[in-house]
Amino acid sequence: MTTRKFPWSAPEDGKASPADVRGFFGKISGRNVPAADSAAPISFNASSKQALLLLQNFEESGRGWFWSTDGEGKITYLSPSVSELVGRPLTAIIGSSFAELFCQGEEAASHQRTLPFILTKQSKFDDLPLQAAANGEDEIWWAVSGRPYFNEGKQFAGYRGSGTDITAQRRTAKDTSRLATYDSLTGLLNRFRMSQLLDTTLTAFRVQKRACSVMLIDLDRFKHVNDTLGHPAGDALLKQVADRLVKVVGDREKISRLGGDEFQIILQDVDDRGALGDLAERIIKSLSHPYSVDGSRCIIGASVGVAVSPFDGQSSEDLIRNADLALYAAKGGGRGRFRFYSSELLQAAEDRRVLEEDLRDALGKNEIWMAYQPVVDAKTDVVTGFEALIRWNHPERGAISPAVFIPIAEEANLIGALGEWALHKACEQAAGWPGRMKVAVNVSPIQFANDMLPKIVESALASSGLPPELLELEITEGVFLQETADTDSMFKALKKIGVRLALDDFGTGYSSLGYLKTAPFDKIKIDQSFVRGATEPESRNGAIIAAIVALAHALDMDTTAEGIESLDQLDLIRELNVSHVQGYVYSQPVANDVLLERCQSGDWRITPSGPAVTRGDRLSMFRKIGAIHENHCYNVVLRNLSVTGALIEGIVDVPKGTKFVLDFGDGQLAVSSVVRSMGHQQGLVFEERLVNDGNGGLCTSRRISPYMMAAAGMPIANLPPGYYTTAEGEQRPKSLPAFSTMGDWKAA
C-alpha cells in the first residue's frame, strides 16, 4: 500500500531551506513567519519531522484539510481530499478563486456573502460555516479558518488556513430545528410553529386591516382505530390524513397538527364564508373516504370549527378559543359537519349542558312521545306505513328538535335507553293500527353495535303482538364504518327474526355499493339531499335518483324518497319510478290518535298538496334584527329566512321595490328589496344569496369588517339612541323615519 507524500515533507537529509520552513509553518499555522537574515539551511530535528508526519496523517484522515491562496484569492494549495469531495480534479481547482469552492444556497447565503468581504479586508477568520459546492446530492458543510500572510516587503501575499467537516453537526442542528417547528409524524407544522405564525400574521394584519381565518379539525372515531388496530395503525392513518389535507388546502405551510387527532389551518386574506364553508365541506368529504391501513379498511370522519379575524377575535387566543367553540358545536350537532363561530355559541354550550341534564329525566317524566309520518305509495297516494319519529316536549322550552337532542343523547350515552323505548312504543302502537300498515323505526349505529339488539327487537314484538314482517328497521350507513364479522352476524340475526331492513340516508356515505352486495336490505331510502334541487335546471340529482332506482330494482328492493315538499318534486319522483314517497307534500308527522282517526276506514288515501314548484328552504324564527333604510334603522322581527329572501314584520305599508339593508348582527348585512307588502309584514328578496352556516342555518357570505363599519359610522352600542358616529367621530342625528312602525317595534 502506498502512502501519499505530505506536500511539505522534510527532505531525506532532514534539511530544508528557510523558505521551505517558513512556507510550511505559515501554511499550517496561518501565521506569517519572518524571513531569516541568513539563507543557510535550517536543520529539522526529530520532533519537527514527527510534527510533519502527524500533520500529514491528519490531512489524510479526512478530518481536516488545508488551503492557501495568493494575493488575488486564487488557490495555490488545497488538500486532495477536498477535490474528491467536490468532484473536481485538483488541477482544475488550483488557480481558481477560493470563493468558488462554496455554493450560494439560501441557507448559507449570509456566510457566502461574508467570505468575499473578509478576504477583501484581509482579516483573519475562524470557523466560518460554509457549504461546499459539491456535485453530489448530499450537502457538505465545513468550518473554515484562515489567516492572511505577507511577504518580506510586508505586502499582502494571500491566505493560509484549514477546514473541518461539520456536516454531521449541521444535520443534527437542522433536525433539532425541524423537530422544534414541525410535527415529526406528519411533517406538518407543529403547535409551537403554528402559534408563532398566527401571532405574527394577526399582528401584521391588524395594522393592515386584513382578514385571517382559522379552521380547527378534529377526527371523528379515530380513537376506535387506535383501540382496535393499535397505535402504529393510528399513526399511519394520521399520515394519510395529513396528505389529504395538503391535497385539499394546497399549501403544507398553512396546516399544522396540534397533537393527537386535531389539526389547524390558517387561511390568510380569506373571510368569504361561502368559500370557507365549501372548503370545510371538501375537507370533511375527503377525510371521510375509506382508508387502507396495514391491509385493514378504516372509515373515520371529521368535524370543523371556523373563526375569522377580526370579526371573531383579534388576538390568537381569542380566535383559537372561538374556533374551538365552533368545533365543539359542530361535533355536538352530529359530527361530520362544520360550524362558524357566532356569539351565541357560549350560551349554546350552557344550554346544551342543561338539556343533557333534562334529557336524563325526560323518559321518566313522560316528556318523550312518538309521532308518525306517512309513507305513501307514489302511484296510488295510499298510505302503506309510517316512520316512527321520536319527539321531546320540554316542559319549559316546548318542542325540542331531534336534531338537537339526539346528538346529545348519543354523546351522553342515553341513546340506548331512548332507542329501546322508541322500539317498544312504536311496536305497541302499531299493533293497534287497522290493516297491515308497516312501522319503520330508526336504529342508530350505537344500538346496532349492541349484541342485545336482536333480543330487544324480539321482546318488543312479543310484548306488542306485532307481526315481525310489519316492523322495518331503518339503518344508516354509519353501521358500516368498521366492517367486521359482527356486522354480518347482526344482519343475519335480525333477518332470522323476520323483520324488514331499510338502508336510510342512502348516498350520503362512501361505500354503499360494496355492502349492498351482501347486506340483506329490503328497501333503500333516497336521502332528501338528492331530492332538493333535483328540479332545478342543470341539476344532476335526477340522474342520480334514476340510477338508485335502477339499482334497487335489480336487487329486488323498494325505494322511498324522503323530504318531498312540492308538486314538481313529486312529479319528478313518479317519473323516475320511485315506489314510495315521504314528505310534507303528503303529510307532516302526526300523533298516534290522529293517525287512528284518519285510518278508521282501513285505508288512508292522501291527496298531495303544497307549492307548485320547489322553493328555497325557509327557516321559521322569531328574532329581532335591524332594517336600515337610507340612514334610519328600524327594529323589526325576522319571521322566516331562506337563501334568497326573508319575511319581516314591524314596519307598516312599505311600497314594493323599497330597498333595505338587513343587519343580522356580527357584521352581517344583506341588501334587499321589498317584493311583497302585507300591512305590517314585508317579503324581501336578497341581492346576494345567503350561504349555509354549517349548522342547518344561513349566514351572509361576507361580513363587513369592524374597521369599515367604524369608518362608515355604523351604530355603536354606548351612544344615545338616534345617533351614528361619523368617521371623524362627531355625532349627528338621523333623518326622520320614512315609514311607520307597528306596536312595540319602534325605531331605535
Task: Summarize this structure briefly.
With 748 residues, the protein is an alpha+beta fold. It has 23 helices and 36 strands.
Description of the structure:
With 748 residues, the protein is an alpha+beta fold. It has four domains: 15-172, Beta-Lactamase, CATH 3.30.450.20; 182-343, Alpha-Beta Plaits; 351-598, TIM Barrel; 619-741, Thrombin, subunit H (Beta Barrel). 35% of the residues lie in helices and 27% in strands. An eight-stranded mixed beta barrel has the order 15-16-18-19-20-21-22-23. A six-stranded antiparallel barrel has the order 25-26-27-31-30-29. The protein has a five-stranded antiparallel β-sheet with strand order 4-3-7-6-5, with helices on both faces. Helix 8 (222-229) runs antiparallel to helix 9 (231-249), helix 9 (231-249) runs antiparallel to helix 10 and helix 14 (415-430) packs parallel to helix 16.
Number of helices: 23
Name the overall outline.
elongated
The largest β sheet comes out as: 8 strands, mixed, barrel
CATH class of the largest domain, named: Alpha Beta
Strand order of the largest sheet: 15-16-18-19-20-21-22-23
Architecture of the largest domain, CATH level 2? Alpha-Beta Barrel
* Estimated radius of gyration: 39 Å
Helix content: 25-40%
CATH superfamily of the largest domain: EAL domain
Strand composition percent:
25-35%
- Separation, N- and C-terminal Cα atoms: 101 Å
Number of domains: 4
Rounded mean pLDDT is 82
